[in-house]
Amino acid sequence: MSIIFHIDVNSAFLSWTAVKLLKEGYPQDIREIPAIVGGDRDSRHGIVVAKSIPAKRYGIETAEPVAAAIRKCPNLVIVPPEHHYYSQQSRMLMSYLSSVCPVIEQVSIDECYMLFDPIQDRFESPEAAAYYIKDHVREKFGFTVNVGISDRKVLAKMASDFEKPDKVHTLYANEISEKMWPLAVGDLFMCGKSAAAKLMQMGIRTIGDLAQSDRSVIESWLKSHGGMLWCFANGIDDSTVKTEREEVKGVGNSTTLAVDITKAKDAYPVLKQLCESVSNRLKRKEFRANSICVEIKYSDFHSESHQKAMPTASCETLDLYREAILLFDELWNGKPLRLLGVRTTKLEHVDEPQQMNLFEFQKQIEENERIKVLDEKRRKVDAAMNQINSKYGDGVLRKGTK
């Protein structure tokens, strides 16, 4: 069986922000002090996107309101997120990892799977290769990663979540009873708070309890999701590492939300980030999309999706986001959401000529011009704000809200 690595940046947004601040002369490494990325101290709005280990010791949790985090730690350092910069860091990391081994599957902005088999002749062992990757990432980029090693993807993922930061861990199938089964059931990959609560009601407190339970009973409580969790608890996972080159029919991305979303205004920024990710991948592949699909999963694990044709084939974030919002608004019934996804299909190469519906031609031109003017205004405002904030300090000038 193949050996698989799961490589995960330690507290990615906070680590990437820390590296940037240090390069700009900031006097402290925010990874070593109580600090978070996300929200605004003055308004106390927003949520914690990422936290340092010292902040975690105060009981600060990802996705909790910034106001609550400040109450726990009044001297908390708060830094706003910079998603464009994070995308740059992600691209650099994945480019480097691809140079080590071409068989990688990126699954989010800060994590990927890598197949060890193609590079096994270069290293004494999988552990030696993992340490080489981990150490070179730290030396080259200034941030750290954890590397999980296993013969199953789900176990490699679990292993990378063991002790952090800057660690290498193994979790082979023959090690799960020792290393994984004693863990709390909520620590199992894909076991959210709702599922963990239901399992606790059944008297299942550890991953081992789940693994040794009757699968049919678990499925009677949690349906197909329960069956998946039971398989993961037993280390059952036959999925393989899929490279980017294998993705020819569609490009997409999804995210399981840290907390359930109950308001559309909270879903829109997530959809935009997903569209940015999909746009970047389409551009790397030199594709445009003719169709877009939005998927949602409710807190009860019921999934739905809608798709539509794009007005014109595109790989631009704003085009994808505009259509994704329309799909989301017609799809969502208002119940709590735990997952959002965006997928594009019917791809064409960017060099292919585009056809335009003649009846929509003038309308599209007018709409594109309107968006172009608005985008140009936004760019000028953002550039002016960045210049002022760079000169006088972050947060001196902020956009107003209604």
Ranges with pLDDT <50 over ≥5 residues? 355-365
Q: Tell me how many strands there are.
A: 12
Give the class from helix and strand content and strand pairing. Answer: alpha+beta
**Approximate strand percentage:** 15-25%
Integer-rounded radius of gyration: 22 Å
Strand order in the largest sheet: 5-6-1-7-8
**Overall form:** globular
Biggest β-sheet strands, sense, barrel: 5 strands, mixed
Number of distinct helices: 13
SSE pattern, N- to C-terminal: EHEEHHEHEEHEHEHHHHEHEEHEH
Q: Mean pLDDT score, rounded?
A: 88
The N- to C-terminal Cα distance equals 57 Å
Fraction of residues in H or I helices: 40-55%
Task: Write up this protein.
The chain is built from 13 helices and 12 strands. It has helices at residues 12-23, 53-56, 66-72, 83-100, 126-141, 153-160, 176-179, 193-201, 207-211, 215-233, 264-285, 317-331, 358-392, and strands at 4-9, 35-37, 50-51, 77-79, 104-108, 111-115, 145-150, 168-170, 250-261, 287-298, 303-314, 337-349. It has a 5-stranded mixed β-sheet with strand order 5-6-1-7-8. The protein starts with a strand and ends in a 10-residue tail after the last helix. Mean pLDDT is 88; it is low at 355-365.
Features:
12 strands; alpha+beta; 5-stranded mixed beta sheet; 20% strand; 402 residues; 43% helix
Question: Can I get a quick summary?
Answer:
The protein is 43% helix and 20% strand. With 402 residues, it is an alpha+beta fold.
